[in-house]
Design brief:
This protein is α+β, with helices and mostly antiparallel strands and 451 residues long. Helix content is 24%, strand content 23%. The protein has helices spanning 62-76, 112-115, 126-129, 170-184, 245-253, 265-281, 325-330, 333-345, 349-361, 428-441, and strands spanning 2-3, 8-9, 11-13, 17-19, 28-31, 44-51, 83-86, 92-96, 101-108, 145-152, 157-164, 237-243, 289-294, 296-297, 316-317, 320-324, 372-377, 395-397, 401-402, 405-412, 418-426. The strands form five sheets. Strands 3, 4, 6, 9, 10, 11 and 18 form a seven-stranded mixed sheet that branches. Strands 12, 13, 16, 17, 19, 20 and 21 form a seven-stranded mixed sheet that branches. β20 and β21 (418-426) form a beta hairpin. α1 (62-76) crosses α4, α6 crosses α8 (333-345) and α6 (265-281) crosses α10. 47% of the residues are buried.
Length: 451
């Protein structure tokens, strides 16, 4: 049973099943790229989609529709039906054995309208709509995808998806979902044929050589020992911040100059969150080195690797901006914006090759956790437009926030304002201070902003 202070409902789940490709698929071993199998990607990432009833789809069961579309899609994306295995030097590979992906059918005795803003990250009912099937959450030897379709009594439904991140990034996941929607609507094949070729793209060079500075992986030292920020995931509070167009304009007004005349929304939000989060976490030493790592996708960008359309592997790195905490906290917003933009400018073909080489040379290290904040903008991927026939979702995207990782998602609030919602994890004592700092920073034009 799920409940909040005002909402109580029950979700009944059937036994999990394995959905396999509708046709025989190749039995083979496929290696992941050296970008795919780094330690920092070895986790499961959840996505949530909430759909209202659509009169034109009456009589059609979303469970059956999505299950059938998924099975047809797995013929083309057959590695997803396999299992990860680990070889020498921790190299990850996919055993394409066709065992299938997990699928859970469920029913909830509630209308989607009753959920209200609970569809937003951090969704308090995630466990109900995307149940962790016991024994399925590992990276090696477990199903690579978990789908749960939960019907509501109003005719709407929720779709929860859990993805092994070593297999695909956000763009790859979206490509896979698009293929499902195409099959649901009668297609005989995906409009974009999937491309594997991990051995050709984003693998380490021979011999590998680190040619760039990678502050996202390297500990930066100063004369004093670094203090730890306590980010115990079991004790963190998950909250979210909504940035309306007025909030963005308020941030933009603080950096208005020729240098920042066309400052992207992402840069403003990232600078704001990095500064406010650091103030809220209150480093004991003003000389503490803090960083924000910025996830940048390499697809279709000038100066990046020539990654073909259809490639669904991980194709991003996350160069870091670095500052002393005291300077970041006391400087104008433009200081943080400048650092963010400089970090983004590091990303090019050589940088991503250097990361792949670093993974091989240093045995696939994890990113720096202490005093780091990793951000990913998924507002342009299209999760908010995934349509299985029931039109676009009320909310579609990540509901996920890890101790050092946040995703930027599209959302239209109850006032009809389209903006960006960002889930974030913080220690209990830092939450109120963080919300206050963000509100203060967006107060310039929006004194009544609801965060």
């Amino acid at each position: 049973m799920a409940f909040s202070s005002t909402l109580v409902f029950t979700v009944k789940r059937r036994e999990p099943e394995l959905v396999v490709p509708t046709k025989p698929t190749p039995r083979e071993i496929k290696k992941l790229s050296d970008i795919d199998d780094q330690e920092g990607f070895r986790f499961q990432i959840p996505l949530m989609f909430f759909y209202r009833d659509n009169p034109s789809m009456r009589g059609k069961d979303p469970v059956g529709v999505i299950r059938e579309g998924l099975a047809k899609t797995l013929v083309y994306y057959y590695p997803f039906a396999g299992r990860i295995i680990e070889g020498d030097n921790r190299k990850l590979m996919v055993d394409c054995n066709g065992k299938g992906v997990l699928f859970v059918e469920a029913d909830a005795n509630i209308k989607i309208e009753q959920l209200g803003d609970n569809v937003l990250p951090p969704c308090p009912f995630m466990e109900e709509f995307l149940h962790d099937v016991p024994g399925s959450g590992g990276i090696i030897g477990c199903p690579l995808l978990l789908f749960q379709v939960t019907r509501f009594i109003c005719g709407g439904f929720a779709l929860g998806i859990r993805l092994n991140h070593t297999m695909a990034d956000g763009y790859g996941a979206m490509q896979f979902l698009n293929a499902i929607t195409e099959f649901v609507k009668g297609a005989s094949a995906p409009s974009i044929p999937p491309i594997w070729q991990r051995e050709q793209y984003l693998n380490a060079r021979s011999p590998p050589r680190i040619t760039c500075t990678h502050n996202e992986f390297e500990q930066i030292t100063h004369n004093k020992p670094s203090s730890d920020v306590i980010m115990d995931s079991d004790k963190l509070i998950r909250t979210a911040i909504f940035f309306s167009p007025k909030d963005i304009q308020a941030l933009r007004n603080q950096v208005s100059s020729e240098n920042f005349h066309r400052c992207p929304r992402f840069d403003l939000i990232t600078a704001c969150l990095w500064k406010c989060r650091t103030i809220a976490l209150n480093p004991a030493d003003p000389d503490e080195m803090v960083r924000v790592s910025i996830i940048i996708n390499a697809r279709g960008k000038q100066g990046m690797p020539d990654i073909p359309t259809g490639y669904y592997g991980n194709a991003f790195t996350y160069p870091a901006a670095v500052s002393k905490a005291g300077i970041l906290c006391t400087s104008p917003l433009s200081y943080a914006v400048h650092l963010v933009q400089n970090a983004k400018a590091q990303m090019n073909d050589e940088y991503i090759k250097s990361v792949a080489d670093l993974m091989v040379i240093k045995k696939r290290p994890k990113y720096i956790v202490n005093w780091n904040f990793i951000v990913s903008d998924i507002t342009r991927i299209g999760f908010d437009k995934v349509d299985f026939g029931w039109d676009s979702p009320v909310y579609g995207g990540s509901t996920f926030a890890a101790p050092v990782l946040s995703f930027y998602n599209n959302f239209k609030n109850s006032n009809g304002e389209e903006g960006v919602v960002v889930p974030i994890c913080l220690p209990p004592l830092a939450v109120e201070k963080f919300q206050y700092e963000v509100k203060k920073m967006t107060l310039n034009l929006n004194a009544h902003s609801k965060l």
